[in-house]
Description:
By secondary structure, the chain is an all-alpha fold. Helix content is 68%, strand content 0%. It is built from 5 helices and no strands. Helix 2 runs parallel beside helix 5. It is globular.
Amino acid sequence: MYREExxxxxxxxARVIDLVESxxxxxxxxxxxxxxxxxxxxxxxxxxxxxSEEGAVRVENLVRRxxxxxxx
Length: 72
């Protein structure tokens, strides 16, 4: 699903995908991150949340924390 969304992504979602792909290399891990409800996002699915600007900012902040290994 993520791979199909990636092809058509625009706006905030495209920006989040670019960020995640710049930090993580494992396509399967990226797919799992985007498709799995995340407790740090109040149970939202990152792929869905990142469609809005506000949601994209929340996902980006989480991704940056994860990249630095900083707890929520």
